[in-house]
Amino acid sequence: MTILVNGVAVTDQDWPTPQMAAVHELLRQRAVALGWLDHEAEPAAVNEAIERVLAEEVRIPDVDEAACRRYYAQHAQRYQSDELVFARHILFQITQGAPVAAVRAMAEAMLTELRAQPALFAERARRHSNCPSGELGGELGQLQRGATVPEFEQALFEGTALGVLPQLVKTRFGFHIVAVDQRVPGKSLPFEHVHDRVADDLHGDAEARALSQYVRVLAGQAEVQGVELDAATSPLIQ
């Protein structure tokens, strides 16, 4: 089905999801409405204008000491020393011009296969992974926090599951099938030792919520067809 945002057709083949393609168009149109972008602008100018929209229109709450302590208490598992995960992965790389939807479909199909037959993981990694670790059956060895990109780290550490994880992990490199073989728990670190890290994490979460809310309001004010966006009609939504 064709995606339309306020009557403008949107191509989603270069985006991980149709929703992301529609959101990009919403933000582009907002930049045009604000007079910060021409309708026929080049992609680089579009991206720059969207960054300006987000910087000037999205309000991110301040992070104070009390909020940091609450966040630390709610996410204590994040702040441990020497926490290790032994993992493997299969990377389906996304390169410029690659058919993203087709790459994702291949990855999803293999994920389904490996969830049913995990013993095939090493063989599939050797044949199909676009990461050098494929030669080792996808083995990444022991990993600790900070050793990988944030999206991959979250998939590894924000849970307790073992085996082939049920969802693909999307990073800047592409789509990953991930298997967690072992978890070695760490020791909790005192709040005072991780204060700056807690503040950064809390700010990141607050920023993500603010961005999501802003996009939902834009979607609520727009006419969007061909894709479902979580729209809101009030800027006061939580």
Automatic annotation (TrEMBL):
Signal peptide: none
Keyword Transmembrane helix among UniProt keywords: no
SUPFAM superfamilies, sorted: FKBP-like (SSF54534)
PROSITE patterns membership: PPIC_PPIASE_2
Entry-linked Pfam families: Rotamase
InterPro entries the record matches: PPIase_dom_sf, PPIase_PpiC, PrsA_foldase
Entry's Gene Ontology molecular function annotations: isomerase activity
Every PpiC domain range: 82-182
Source organism, top-level taxon: Bacteria
Keywords in alphabetical order: Isomerase, Rotamase
The enzyme's E.C. designation: 5.2.1.8
Catalytic reaction equation(s): [protein]-peptidylproline (omega=180) = [protein]-peptidylproline (omega=0)
PANTHER family: PEPTIDYL-PROLYL CIS-TRANS ISOMERASE HP_0175-RELATED, PEPTIDYLPROLYL ISOMERASE
Family statement: Belongs to the PpiC/parvulin rotamase family.
Protein name (Swiss-Prot/TrEMBL): peptidylprolyl isomerase
